[in-house]
Amino acid sequence: MSQTAEATGTAVEENQKDSGVNVQSIEFSEVAETASTGAAAGIDILLDLDVPITVIIGRTEISVQKLLQLKPGSVVKLDKSVDAPVDLYLKDTKFATGNIVVVEDRFAVKIKEILGSANKAEVKKQ
């Protein structure tokens, strides 16, 4: 440590003693560098993570007044037709399109296209 740092540290310690604060010096030990396990081993930890995917079947805008008037049985008209592809998002990034299907009495999405870097400009415009 330089003399300036030592002097500053001593002054701080004295000021803190005067204010009733207990200050202790610490020393950090060296950490041995471990061998890298490689990129493939590093990504393995991510393969078992569950990530939320959002499927957007359509959008609409309504006034707050109409929103407050909604009740069971109300119909909200969306901007897409029934047979239009749906958009799949990971966080705020569109990564695929697909079609709504029914599997064992549940809605599902059949992937139609996985978007790559060629589609990024188109995706950001939406």
CATH level-four homologous superfamily name of the domain at 48-125: SpoA-like
In angstroms, what separates the terminal alpha carbons? 56 Å
- CATH topology descriptor of the domain at 48-125: Surface presentation of antigens (SPOA)
What percentage of residues falls in helices of 4 or more residues?
25-40%
Strand order of the largest sheet: 1-2-3-4
What is the number of E strands?
4
Structural class: alpha+beta
Q: For the CA atoms, what is the radius of gyration?
A: 29 Å
Strand % is 15-25%
In this structure, how is the largest beta sheet organized?
4 strands, antiparallel
Q: What's the architecture of the domain at 48-125 in CATH terms?
A: Roll
Low-pLDDT segments: 1-8
Q: Can you tell me the CATH class of the domain at 48-125?
A: Mainly Beta
Summarize the structure.
27% of the residues lie in helices and 23% in strands. It has a domain at 48-125: Roll (Surface presentation of antigens (SPOA)), CATH 2.30.330.
Q: Can you characterise this structure?
A:
The protein is α+β, with helices and mostly antiparallel strands. The protein has a domain at 48-125: Roll (Surface presentation of antigens (SPOA)). The protein is 27% helix and 23% strand. The protein contains four helices and four strands; from the N terminus they run ααβαβββα. It has helices spanning 3-18, 39-44, 64-69, 120-125; strands at residues 53-56, 86-90, 93-103, 106-114. The chain has a four-stranded antiparallel sheet with strand order 1-2-3-4, with no helix packed on it. β3 and β4 form a beta hairpin. The longest helix has 16 residues, at 3-18. The model is unreliable at 1-8 (pLDDT under 50).
